[in-house]
Recover the amino acids of this structure.
């Protein structure tokens, strides 16, 4: 099993600063201007550290420099360079690197949906891929749940293949970021890829008895609004589940953005990490979140504006989670994932949260750091 | 391989009885009363205001024709004497001996409003059966008022309400904790009683984790309601610790014994620490099921909870039985009278017939038969057991999935159920909500069925799995050998098409010109 590594070093840059993504050179510049720091490289290193720990001396092919090899330095892993002869900081780098690895058995890439799209466009459909999650948007089904999970998955592929199943139809999705900044969600399917999946339980059926889940969720949101403490700052995360709370309070939520409520009023809409931290100030704070379908992400996918600092202030007790019961049943594994960017905080958040599914109904879900 | 029968149901294609008969047709013709009778009782027994003005619109039909019609209808159903490994329902034979016992005039001709002195025999049976259930559970008092398992679960929530109200803590103890695959009536009845419901999902080992329970219970927890094994068929070996954790938080603990068959005689709810439990006499104890009708949820509890039981409670004072209504802390009645007494007598007859050793043996057989069935089902390609990594044996039933076969062929669990009827086999039970595996089915072998019966059932499943690959259209459009072809399911979700009475049928279906009866 020959594995090649490609890193998109600027992936995820727009997340913390509320830019919804990092597509296009203009956005990169804007993100850097807002003080964003690239962390795709360090996240890649977290993944590879887990691989080195499980299988010391394991061999990888890698693109040179910060496109790959740089993040392996110092780890107990063997590297063979595959030089794509490029470093333009554009999607072209990814595509040329992928082409230089066309003969390998799996391409491990670090990035988000945009990178997944670029990788997918350049490979043969049968060539397997696996994403180290580093983007802002990760709607594609090609990412491991955390950098460490990606490392563990690689180790299993090499060492314990019976723990792995493969699927040929992981969706590669991307959202038009410019439209998203205007408030429109326009997800598009760019293709399907072959990916490894950690064996979990079987997934829930789509054919079960029908229920009006969204009406139940609206009821849960109304119940929450009625219970709100007037002195507490409520940070409302992206997605329709958290958005239901805004609707229940008579406000219009920002699509895939972060809003803040105080005393039943909308304090600020579509805010980034810095403003959120400023608003939080000394107030008590609670964070209202939904869950991503199938993968079960609570923190770290599309809601990176809610920074580790804000999350640490809220703590696990300050998390309010809403999700339809069928979404919880449809998760690949019976748990929710946190990937805040701060492994120490992630570890602290591990435990159980009550997920509100309907008025007077909740399900206890395990929070895992991957 | 069994010989799969070449079955075909009877099809009589008769109109409904309301459309049968002819003017003047009668079942019985009664003679006019003789003068002496009229002189004695009068001829105006029915007050004018209550006498109907029009003749009833009943079918004018002879007794013989009515009998023949209903015989035909019974021939067109599979009935309950076929092979039915209908999971979660614990199908048992309802013996004629038990039936005869309830036909005796000492039972069939008494009324609950009679004086206790004239009911000593039946009260004695109820008291003795209470004793049998006490020895199976360790509880201190049973009542039989609840008309089914869900009613008994409701009894628990009503007791919990009364218990916490009595302590002035009903405003604080507002939550009920249960697991995702426990009896679905647990969250439903707790919600009906006004409690908030906290669900614990199944984790990797096939049951919820102790950590989840620890995170869920608090000083707000009024009670926990659990099944063990739950509907996945996996026994939670940490149950004692579960009860300890819940009690440490102050919660009441209720063991829903809907799935008692695999553990009957093996464990005692009280020894595990539970405060209360319930048995379904129409499942585990061999009394007939009756579609929400005359079932019995036998509810038992500790002496601490007994003051809150619904009344009346059958008690023995000296050598005499009486109905104790004077219980000031009672939660009230969950149903009228003292329960479906003939069912209690049938369950008592079953328990006495089986004896303690027989009950143990039946439990063993049900688990062995189920594991034999699991082994053979696992050899059919396309079927998948739930929680495949869990190595523990399943108890009396197992949740299975047709997921792989459905992905390969497009044939799912509903298609299978329809096709099973073509072989004279009762369609299987799929799953309670929520469906947590794709295309679920839940067989339960039980102690009734012979190895030959179980083999035939499995061979029919194997045959349909083969058909799904070679002739999926036949499976998709089943049943073909039944009195009625595939029923259009959308009828069941549209109340405007429901007709429970002849009058509703006339109004909704005939009146609107929709003459179809839901059959394709």
């Amino acid at each position: 099993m020959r594995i090649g590594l490609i890193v998109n070093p600027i992936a995820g840059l727009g997340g913390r600063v509320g830019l919804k993504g990092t597509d296009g050179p203009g956005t990169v510049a804007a993100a850097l201007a807002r003080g964003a720091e690239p962390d795709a490289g360090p996240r890649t290193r977290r993944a590879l550290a887990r691989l080195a720990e499980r299988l010391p001396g394991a061999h990888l092919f890698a693109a040179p420099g910060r496109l790959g090899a740089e993040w392996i330095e110092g780890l107990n892993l063997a590297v063979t360079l595959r030089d794509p002869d490029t470093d333009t900081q554009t999607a072209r780098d990814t595509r040329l690197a992928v082409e230089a690895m066309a003969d390998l058995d799996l391409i491990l890439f670090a990035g988000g949906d945009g990178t997944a799209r670029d990788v997918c466009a350049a490979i043969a459909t049968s060539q397997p891929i696996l994403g180290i999650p580093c983007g802002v948007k990760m709607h594609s089904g090609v990412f491991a749940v955390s950098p460490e999970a990606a490392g563990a998955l690689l180790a299993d592929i090499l060492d314990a293949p019976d723990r792995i199943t493969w699927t040929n139809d992981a969706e590669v999705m991307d959202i038009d970021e410019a439209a998203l900044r205007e408030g429109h969600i326009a997800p598009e399917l760019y293709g399907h890829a072959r990916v490894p999946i950690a064996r979990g339980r079987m997934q829930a059926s789509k054919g079960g008895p029908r229920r009006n889940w969204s009406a139940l969720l609206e009821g849960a949101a109304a119940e929450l609004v009625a219970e709100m403490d007037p002195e507490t700052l409520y940070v409302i995360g992206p997605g329709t589940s958290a958005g239901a709370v805004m609707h229940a309070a008579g406000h219009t939520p920002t699509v895939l953005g972060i809003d803040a409520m105080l005393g039943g009023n909308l304090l600020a809409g579509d805010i980034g990490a810095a403003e959120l931290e400023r608003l939080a100030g000394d107030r008590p704070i609670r964070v209202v979140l939904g869950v991503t379908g199938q993968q079960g992400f609570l923190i770290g996918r599309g809601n990176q504006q809610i920074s580790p600092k804000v999350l640490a202030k809220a703590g696990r007790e300050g998390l309010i989670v809403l999700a339809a019961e069928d979404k919880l049943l449809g998760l690949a594994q019976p748990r929710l994932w946190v990937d805040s960017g701060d492994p120490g905080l992630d570890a602290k958040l591990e435990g159980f949260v009550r997920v509100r599914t309907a008025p007077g109904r909740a399900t206890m879900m395990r929070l895992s750091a991957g | 391989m069994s010989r799969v029968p070449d079955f075909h149901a009877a099809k009589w294609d008769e109109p409904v009885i309301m459309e049968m008969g002819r003017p003047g047709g009668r079942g019985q013709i009664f003679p006019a009363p003789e003068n002496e009778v009229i002189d004695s009782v009068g001829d105006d027994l029915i007050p004018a205001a209550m006498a109907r003005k029009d003749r009833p619109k009943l079918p004018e039909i002879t007794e013989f024709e009515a009998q023949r019609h209903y015989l035909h209808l019974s021939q067109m159903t599979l009935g309950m004497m076929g092979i039915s490994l209908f999971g979660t329902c614990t199908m048992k034979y309802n013996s004629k001996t038990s039936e005869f016992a309830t036909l005796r005039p000492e039972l069939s001709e008494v009324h609950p409003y009679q004086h206790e002195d004239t009911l000593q025999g039946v009260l004695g049976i109820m008291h003795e059966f209470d004793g049998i259930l006490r020895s199976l559970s360790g509880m201190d008092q049973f009542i039989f008022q609840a008309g089914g398992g869900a009613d008994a679960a409701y009894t628990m929530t009503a007791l919990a309400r009364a218990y916490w109200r009595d302590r002035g803590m009903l405003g604080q103890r507002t939550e009920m904790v249960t697991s995702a695959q426990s009896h679905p009536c647990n969250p439903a009845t707790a919600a009906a009683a006004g409690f908030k419901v906290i669900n614990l999902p199944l984790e990797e080992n096939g049951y919820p984790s102790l950590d989840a329970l620890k995170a869920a219970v608090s000083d707000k927890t009024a009670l926990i309601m659990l099944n063990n094994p739950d509907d996945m068929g996996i026994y939670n070996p940490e149950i004692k610790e579960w009860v300890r954790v819940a009690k440490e938080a102050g919660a009441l603990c209720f063991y829903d014994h809907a799935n008692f068959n695999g553990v009957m005689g093996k464990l005692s709810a009280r020894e595990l620490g539970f405060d209360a439990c319930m048995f379904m006499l129409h499942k585990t104890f061999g009394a007939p099921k009756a579609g929400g009708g005359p079932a019995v949820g036998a509810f038992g509890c500790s002496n601490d909870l007994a003051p809150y039981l619904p009344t009346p409670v059958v008690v023995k004072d000296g050598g005499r039985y009486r109905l104790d209504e004077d219980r000031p802390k009672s939660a009230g009645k969950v149903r009228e009278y003292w329960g479906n007494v003939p069912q209690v007598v049938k369950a008592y007859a079953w328990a006495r017939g089986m004896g303690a050793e027989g009950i143990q043996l039946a439990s063993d057989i049900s688990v062995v038969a189920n594991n034999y069935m699991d082994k053979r089902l696992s050899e059919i390609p396309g079927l998948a057991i739930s929680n495949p990594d869990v190595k523990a044996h399943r108890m009396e039933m197992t949740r299975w999935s047709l997921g792989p076969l459905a992905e390969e062929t497009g044939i799912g669990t509903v298609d299978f159920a329809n096709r099973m009827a073509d072989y004279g086999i009762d369609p299987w039970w799929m799953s309670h909500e929520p469906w947590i595996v794709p295309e679920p089915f839940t067989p339960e072998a039980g102690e009734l069925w012979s190895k030959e019966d179980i083999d035939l059932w499995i061979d029919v499943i194997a045959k349909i799995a083969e058909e799904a690959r070679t002739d999926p259209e036949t499976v998709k459009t089943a049943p073909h050998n039944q009195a009625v072809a595939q029923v259009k399911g959308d009828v069941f979700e549209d109340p405007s098409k429901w007709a429970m009475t002849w009058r509703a049928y006339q109004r909704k279906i005939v009146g609107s010109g929709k003459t179809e009866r839901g059959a394709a």
